[in-house]
Amino acid sequence: MYRQCLKKALKSRSLVSEAASYWKGSTRSFSSSAGTQGNYWRSSVKKLSAAATIGAAVAAFYGIERQRSSPVSCKEAETTSKGSVNYDKVREAIVKVIEVDDNIAPAMLRLAWHSSGSYDKKTNTGGSDGATMRFSPEKDYAANAGLFRARDALEPVKKQFPEITYADLWTLAGAVAVEEMGGPKVAWRPGRRDAVSGQECPPDGRLPDADKGTLSGTVQHIRDIFYRMGFNDQEIVALVGAHAVGHTHKQFSGYDGPWTRAPTTFSNELFRELLENKWTLRKWNGPDMFEDPTGEIIMLPTDMALTWDKEFRKYVETYAADQDRFFEDFAKAFQKLEELGVKAFQEEAKKKRGWFS
Q1: Helix (H, G, I), strand (E, B) or coil at 298
Q2: Which long-range contacts (CB under 8 A, 24 or more apart) does 153-157 make?
Q3: What was the pLDDT predicted at 352?
Q4: Which one, of 14, 52, 18, 47, lies nearest residue 30 by Cα?
Q5: What residue ranges of the chain have pLDDT lower than 50?
Q6: I want to staple 118 with a disulfide (CB 3.0 to 4.6 A). Which of 32, 184, 206, 279 is the partner?
Q7: Where is this region: Disordered (predicted)?
Q8: Is there a contact between 163 and 84 (Cβ–Cβ < 8 Å)?
Q9: What pLDDT is recorded for position 54?
Q10: Residue 82's pLDDT is what?
Q11: pTM of the model
């Protein structure tokens, strides 16, 4: 693959050189023959032909130069999902996994969320591109504890469709899981690559913690984490709404209990519970968490923070009253989350703006 890249670069350089020489000759011919109409048109054709040749050469060379300067090396580019993947069939395979055990759907959503939520817009690192949670140290971070269950559950799908990258598979599974749990359809597109080692793993600490010890500290922590990725307050509340599904596990996070009484149904129930239920600190030998009067459902300090902060709270109230609005906003925010840091999408956006932008 490296030899092919080098050959293309050298060929492009040669083509540019030849076209430039031809252009000079055409220009001289144009100047000397401008006196007759026939020679004028012949020279014009030569001029246009040379221009086309130069354009093609520059385009080819520019593509190689951009590929060489991109963080994605030629070798890594081989690990991008191939065009032959039948994504409808992949979706069907994911659905079958969920049908066997619907408790795996919240874990798939969390896998997609955590593999994407490591993005840092300032350094353009982290995010779903690379599926780096396959490697240490990222797979061993405390925030990712228990996600091996979702990764393992998707392994048979990867074996069935080896052409798809893990990065595409995990994010597609997250979108499918939301829909299968009764949530909105999340727009998804392929193009993520797989990293070849753990050297691209983002540093620990980029995912949100459940508690920072104080009300103000917890609220600020939420904003710091999400603003780093490029989200606003409304998007933050929408994304945290995913806690409507799933269950905390003491052996993984230290917390214990589900957020709602329907942990495999995607809904606006988290927001309704936050506003309509009564929450008190649980008295137990564990980290600070809140429980309702029955003790059956829980809220983390970061969940409660959405009601403590007036800017967050107004969106909690909106989503509690309007599930359709929540679904619409969540679908947009989750698509944005899953596409953060994807080099192919960034390159595509640059091309739309122009080569030299």
Answers
A1: strand
A2: 153/97, 153/101, 153/104, 153/107, 153/108, 154/94, 154/97, 154/108, 154/111, 156/93, 156/97, 157/90, 157/93, 157/94, 157/97
A3: 87
A4: 47
A5: 1-78
A6: 206
A7: 189-213
A8: yes
A9: 39
A10: 58
A11: 0.77
140-147 long-range CB contacts below 8 Å, 24 or more apart? 141/204, 141/207, 142/204, 142/253, 143/114, 143/204, 143/207, 143/209, 144/114, 144/207, 145/252, 145/253, 146/107, 146/249, 146/251, 146/252, 146/253, 147/107, 147/110, 147/111, 147/114
CB under 8 A, 24+ apart: contacts of 347-355 = 347/66, 347/70, 348/191, 355/62
Backbone angles phi, psi at 261, to 5 degrees: -90, 0
Vertex 114, ends 211 and 218: CA angle to 5°?
15
Phi, psi values for residue 249, rounded to 5°: -125, 125
- What is the Cα–Cα distance from 331 to 23, expressed in whole angstroms? 53
Is 248 in a helix, a strand, or coil? strand
CA–CA separation, 142 and 129 (whole Å): 21
Residue 353 pLDDT: 83
Rounded distance, CA 47 to CA 23, Å? Answer: 7
Longest dimension (CA), the chain: 99
What contacts 104, CB < 8 A, 6 or more positions away?
A: 97, 98, 149, 150, 153
Burial class from Cβ neighbours inside 10 Å (0-12, 13-18, 19+) for residue 15 reads middle
Which pLDDT belongs to residue 18? 42
Identity of the residue numbered 121: K
Cα 169 to Cα 40, 47, 156, 181, 346: the distances in Å are 59, 49, 11, 18, 19
In this predicted structure, what is the pLDDT of residue 78? 40
Q: Which residues contact 226 (CB under 8 A, 6 or more apart)?
A: 208, 235, 236, 239
**Which has the closest alpha carbon to 167: 137, 140, 200, 142?**
200
What is the residue whose two structure tokens read 């599904």? 245
Which is nearest to 188 in space by CA: 79, 267, 108?
108
CA 3, CA 251: separation in Å to the nearest integer?
Answer: 50
Give the DSSP letter string of 136-157. TTGGGSGGGTTTHHHHHHHHHH
How many Å apart are CA 228 and CA 213, to the nearest integer?
21
pLDDT of residue 230: 98
The letter for the amino acid at 41 is: W
* Active-site residue list: 114, 259
